Amino acid sequence: MAVFGTLSEKLTSALSNLRTKGKLSAADVDGTVREIRRALLDADVSLDVVKSFTGKIRDRALSDAVNKALNPAQQVVQIVNEELVEILGGTQSQLTFAKTPPTVIMLAGLQGSGKTTFAGKLARYLKSQGHTPVLVACDLQRPNAVTQLTVVAEQAGVQIFAPEPGNGKGNPVSVAKDGVKYAKQKMYDTVIIDTAGRLGVDEDLMREARAVRDATNPDEVLFVLDAMIGQDAVLTAKAFQDGVDFTGVVLTKLDGDARGGAALSVSGLTDRPIVFASTGESLDALEPFYPDRMASRILDLGDILTLIEQAQKNFDEEDANKVAEKIQSNSFTLQDFLEQLQQVRKMGSMKGLLGMMPGAGKMREQIDNFDEKEIDRTEAIIRSMTPAERETPRLLNGSRRLRIAKGSGMTVTDVNQLVIRFESAAKMMKTVAKGGTPNIPGMGPVPGVRPKGKAITAKKGSRSGNPAKRAAENAAIHSASSPTGNSFGLGSEPTSELGDKDHETLRRLLERGGL
Amino acid sequence: MAWSLSKAFRGLFAGAREVEPQDWENLEDTLLRADFGPRVTDEVIEAVHAIADGSKPLDTDDLRRILGEVLEERLASFDPTLSLTSESGKPAVVLVVGVNGVGKTTTIGKLAKFIATRGKRVLVGAADTFRAAAVDQLATWAERAGADIVKPQQDGQDPASVAFQTVERAVASGHEIVIIDTAGRLHTKSGLMDELAKIKRVVQKSVPISEVLLVLDATTGQNGLNQAEAFLEQAGVTGLVLTKLDGSARGGFVFAVQELTGIPVKLVGQGEGIDDLTGFTPHVFVRQLLD
Asked: Which of A206, A305, A407, B142 is least buried, going by the fewest C-beta atoms within 10 A?
């Protein structure tokens, strides 16, 4: 489940009231903002960040910069999302590597935040990227921290530099210095320094951390923070910023059900990027942190906002109208179909696209079974046709089909199936178009492909063509207001996969306001 | 300078003067900042309002007194007594559980010391066979506390079997208190939570369990509630241990977690030293916050 699950639910319910109303009044906005405030507090976002956040939302929601492309509810979603992304750091950030090795990465954080485990994960990660990391054991305080790091290093398959036994013995500063020296001598290109954590924040800890920092001049100082931390996140983060001036943040234990409000708090207050998200106990459970993804997850709209944006970007309205026209005049050709396919593809992988849909969790299996290659195959077949054939599929006699099959590396049966499906779909589209299906102009290319999809779904297990349908379906996401057919076309009663509420939500979200 | 709840309260109530609307807002902010959570904050404010609105004029001293009463009353419904008694001839077994990094092993070290200094023979069981070096860490603590320890016989041994061996040995050698360490686990991992249930089952075949203590990091925010709920359901938690309470002075969490889970706080850890674990006394706690 999404990391920010519960916060998402709350914001969604806060915003669902807005979705049903046409216009935003000050009272609407205030009510919603109150809900958002509460949801954020429940998610352990620090009070100051909550205050400034809700303040901004309110101001923006009430200001008259109206986006004609979206309805008011979508606008609030968008505003909330934009602000979240902004706080979370805008874009994804990367580790900085030194021009001349070794790169020194120092880890700092409270006790129990997961520094030592993260050190192992980072080492493993860097190793997989072709680096040669060495772990330096500077946590000489906690009983057996050195032993733990040794075990972790072994698991990660990297070298460890641990000259001191720890348990209160040894000087961390000189260990750190020697560690860097050691790396230079032995040609390791990255040094990861694990430092001691303490309960709370105390000056001794900071002095020690500062001394280690000054002695090794690290390229990155990563502040390791437990995602489950509460209002204390602010103080801890500030103390570490003042103390060691970290360059990036690592959130750990994100695989729990913590809402991770700390992510918001820390980014909001320290202006330092979150570099990694640590999501499990295995040493491989480390991911780069994607602010935009996190923000969208908070809203529990899947990454539907991404979807809206991508759709807006890629689906040119003019094209859309052209397609609609063509469908109506019965001149929709295989060439058009190919173009549609490519537009859908611009939105990214189908699996990714499907995974972004709210409620996608329930159809995980179907999504996993989806074969991206299907689209490739369909494209290959159409590309093996001459322009004339694409315009007029009737030209396709036996020998042409054989040529196409050979050209595309498929069989004649595949080609036949594609043509049959295309024809029946085109027929269906025409019927639908004549019947005046709502939203066709609004949702552009989608309507074009959607009915085709339906036709194709009838033949379960077919290879070509199907993807188009799927693609279209998913891009369209119920653009037509009457969800008659399979909603996702994944081959099994999809309509029931999503609750009515989800349908409604989706439809509303994708429906362009005012169109 | 670290923020603390008591300092914030002191600032709020400095010098007796009439209560202004601004004070209510500050009070709310203060409670929220102390991890009371939005729900308990609302309830506390409401309860204070209910009493305060009847007595006017109202000055900040009154407000503080009323707040103290409200807070104490809220704590009074929980019994913080640690039960360490068992059938005669059998040891009292304490199972210690919690998510990763909250200070379980440290807590056990302190608890062992706490009990050992009162003249009881303590045996600790190192059933955290998962985390690297956890057994060594516990052994170090046990030595400092003067307690005996049962270690796994091989790497990655089933924790339930370590727990069982610990209890068996305690029965055989006449230890009065058994404390069993378990691996930290996120409460969302059902497989690991089942493992806890198994440890409990296996131990109870031999000796009844006196306490299942859930160790919570006091700096944890509202997620602590989810943790407590999950562990209550899976491991039958009977008491809470709040660690790192000194790190933040975030007393609010005590209220939130007790009220929303119904489990009493029984021990609090207030420092890094081995003697820094104490029992929980509600009225002292409230007085510390407000005076």
From this structure: A407
